[in-house]
Amino acid sequence: MTGEASVAAGSTIDALGQFELHPVLGHLGEALRFSQSPLFMLIAAAVVLVFLYVGMRPAAVVPGRLQAAAEISYDFVHDLAVSTIGENGATFFPFVFAIFFFILAGNYLGLLPFSFTYTSHIAVTFGLAIMVFVISILASIRFQGVGFLKHFLPAGTPVWLAPLLVPIEIISFLSRPVSLSIRLFANMVAGHVLLEVFAGFTIMLAGLGAFGHVLAVAPIAINVALTALELLVGVLQAYVFAILTCIYLREAVAH
Amino acid sequence: MYRTPRLFLFAAPLAAVPGRAVAAGMPQLNFHDPLLIGQVVWGAVIFGGFYLALSRFALPRVERVLTNRRTRIQSDLDVARKAKAEADRASAELLSARHEAAEQARAHVERIQSEARASADAHAAETAKRLETEIANAETRITQSREQALSSLSEIATSTTQDLVTRLIGTQDEQTVASAVKRVSA
């Protein structure tokens, strides 16, 4: 959330201004269409890579704290990928790891004041979801050939139900990237709008004099609680995105 | 679960904030903004780079460390298992050696005990035999002495009687005295 933009002139709260894109690096950024969103993507990727690099630099048999953290994040996603996708899980593990940590780092970086949450942009989350969608279709063709189309008619269904079931299955298949992207986008937007609105309340109440100063504590307390909630939501949404990716990939590689 | 109060909280300020924010629309849906499409393209590039860096360098590095640890722990366990097997074998050998030694010692003690018993028995038997012969000799000697004593008894009695008679009456008849003594001592 961008703190300085939280209160518009007057008594209204500009809750959505924080999602506006502005070019960074001046004219160069404008020419390259480089806004703060890709900047924070770069920062997120760098943070994760530096975390893994610095964490694993000792390469100790008995890990220190940071190395243990790096190993736990590796093991966590590895177990998730292998246990959900199955024996081919190791193939997709780097992809699932990249998805999970790209989203997690985006969600958490967005909680810092003056930062930007790129996962609050439907274009970004839809892009990620479409990528998962396309990769799962490619994996289906790679592992099952054109035969994967038979999944659109669940096994054991009477043939006369096919005209009804096949369109339903196709619609549910096509709606996957939509639900995947909107879930993450809506959660992030809702959380950040809430934080912004309550922060705005604080400033508005503070303008009411001594009585308002006392009352202004309440929205701050709520924001503290909301920040804790957002920490939960941030990791939960990254996990949900990653595990749904794994489930789609399992269907793709299953015979 | 946590969703319902959250959505309520979300709806409340939206209702409270009139007009402007909602009317202006969400910046995320302003698809005419070149920056919006730009961030998708940049996002694809950055995510691609992120994926490559992870799959080529970062994750294999973690994997290597984990594999190293696993093999090292495995080999340490193997060494420990081997050492334990050796220790078990040595302990079993020690036990059997102790058992054997105890058996030998017991046999040895029994042999010595039986030898001692046999020699004591032999010694006792020898002593008994010697004592018996000595007793027998002694008995013979006693018998001889008694017979001797008994045979010389009448002679002494006769001579003593003769002396007594001579003292008493001044004379004596050898035949009479002898027969008298014989009569009395019989």
Automatic annotation (TrEMBL), chain A:
It is a multi-pass membrane protein. Coiled coil: none annotated. Pfam families: ATP-synt_A (PF00119). The chain crosses the membrane at residues 39-56, 92-110, 122-143, 155-174, 194-222, 228-249. One of its GO terms (molecular function) is proton-transporting ATP synthase activity, rotational mechanism. Belongs to the ATPase A chain family. Keywords: ATP synthesis, Cell membrane, CF(0), Hydrogen ion transport, Ion transport, Membrane, Transmembrane, Transmembrane helix, Transport. The keyword Isomerase does not apply. The keyword Transmembrane applies. Key component of the proton channel; it plays a direct role in the translocation of protons across the membrane. The gene is atpB. It is found in: Cell membrane; Membrane. This is ATP synthase subunit a. GO terms for cellular component: plasma membrane; proton-transporting ATP synthase complex. It comes from the Bacteria. HAMAP family: ATP_synth_a_bact. The lineage of its organism: Bacteria, Pseudomonadati, Pseudomonadota, Alphaproteobacteria, Acetobacterales.
From TrEMBL, chain B:
Belongs to the ATPase B chain family. PANTHER family: ATP SYNTHASE SUBUNIT B, ATP SYNTHASE SUBUNIT B', CHLOROPLASTIC. It comes from Gluconobacter roseus NBRC 3990. One of its GO terms (molecular function) is proton-transporting ATPase activity, rotational mechanism. F-type ATPases have 2 components, F(1) - the catalytic core - and F(0) - the membrane proton channel. F(1) has five subunits: alpha(3), beta(3), gamma(1), delta(1), epsilon(1). F(0) has three main subunits: a(1), b(2) and c(10-14). The alpha and beta chains form an alternating ring which encloses part of the gamma chain. F(1) is attached to F(0) by a central stalk formed by the gamma and epsilon chains, while a peripheral stalk is formed by the delta and b chains. Its main location: membrane. The keyword Signal applies. F(1)F(0) ATP synthase produces ATP from ADP in the presence of a proton or sodium gradient. F-type ATPases consist of two structural domains, F(1) containing the extramembraneous catalytic core and F(0) containing the membrane proton channel, linked together by a central stalk and a peripheral stalk. During catalysis, ATP synthesis in the catalytic domain of F(1) is coupled via a rotary mechanism of the central stalk subunits to proton translocation. Component of the F(0) channel, it forms part of the peripheral stalk, linking F(1) to F(0). The b'-subunit is a diverged and duplicated form of b found in plants and photosynthetic bacteria. Residues 1-23 form the signal peptide. Keywords: ATP synthesis, Cell membrane, CF(0), Hydrogen ion transport, Ion transport, Membrane, Signal, Transmembrane, Transmembrane helix, Transport. One of its GO terms (cellular component) is endomembrane system. It holds the Pfam family ATP-synt_B. This is ATP synthase subunit b. It is found in: Cell membrane; Endomembrane system.
